[in-house]
Amino acid sequence: MKQFKWLLLLVVFALVATACGDDDADDTTAAPSDTTVAAETTAAPDDGGTDTTAAPDTTEAMVDLSGTSVSIFSSEDGVDEATGIQRALDVFAAETGIEIKHSGARDFSEQINAQAVGGNPPDIAMFPQPGKVRDFASQGFLLPLPAAVDAAVRPQWPAGTLETYSVDGVAYAVQAKTDLKSIVWYNTQVFADGGYAIPTTLGELVTLGNTMITDGQTPWCIGIESGPATGWLFTDWMEDMMLRVEGPDAYDRWTSNELAFDDPSVIAVAQTILDIWNTPGNTYAAGGSIAATAHSADHGDPLAAVGEGIPSCSPRNMSRPPLIDDTFAEAFPMMATRLIITAADEIFVKTAATEFCGNASSVIGCNCEAAVERFLVPDETIDGRPGVAILAFAFDQASLQKAVSN
User: Fold this and answer.
1) CA distances from 215 to 109, 164, 294, 313 (A)
2) pLDDT grade, residue 358 (50/70/90)?
3) Domains, in order of start, for the chain
4) What burial letters (b/e) apply to 235-244, b meaning 16+ CB within 10 Å?
5) Which of 5, 131, 182, 334 has its CA 20 to 30 A from that of 39?
């Protein structure tokens, strides 16, 4: 089996891995597996001090890493998410000269398992589950955090944070972010028109749902479809409900499997969720079922097309704010061009538009985003044939020219 080196930095619900070493590294620590070797790590110069609470001085010159490259693999494959990650990494790459390549997949868990066992993991990984870090560390796939990294990062997070990613007192990952996933979004206009009070307990929430059904409202919009990762939103509901119904102590015992998944109390919590989802008239799912409805516009149709004859869903439990339909916005400068494509008939026009926009729909795949502005009648085109107007966007002129010419 191919030897590899892997060191992790991580996230709550989206963990990040970092730092690959050199096969000729002198400073190594044996990992508990014959398929791993420790990576050489470069720490900041030791000035002999002991105070590790200060944030690093960002005014110092970056280390020159020209000629080196790092691969990053995560579960983030949505345009907004993946593009945001790459743009943040590009800043570091520009400062250091390192080449950083990020890729994402919704079936991250399955792929990372195969990569680890096959001996070809990425240099940096982003795990959705902190427990997966402990599993990989126990199997010998990970290296402990270098002491300098541990000392620099630990004071920046609440006490006990790194313990979440530790095995036998040794930390294997660093938390990079925290996601808030317990917010229930609701339609304020519907609440105002119906005179509904905001519930403060689970019981009041259930009672409100029943009242809204009687009033002809559809209380919930719910979708858990996410490609190969379909269902992860249900786990968020389970975590929220375990804390709400059983409390922190039971939750901690549940996460360590001291409280088994088939324990009657855990089954009762799952049933509480299903009772909300399955009560007749309580849930609208744009995809026809909760499992077939995408949780975000990045991965399918919105939860609901409010305003198009579909009952407005008042509460929504989501990992992000409610979607706004028919709106496009970018928070960074881009180059743009407008293209007119014509063809012998409308069928060929639509085929051309689909092929062009399908290839350019993601800046991850071809460094360009494109969309149909509108279709054109023959009187609107220069050659008197049916046509389509397409808008294309890229981060720079060279990328835009390359995408359009290809």
Assistant:
1) 43, 46, 27, 13
2) low
3) 1-179 (3.40.190), 189-317 (3.40.190.10), 335-405 (3.30.70.520)
4) ebbbbbbbee
5) 131
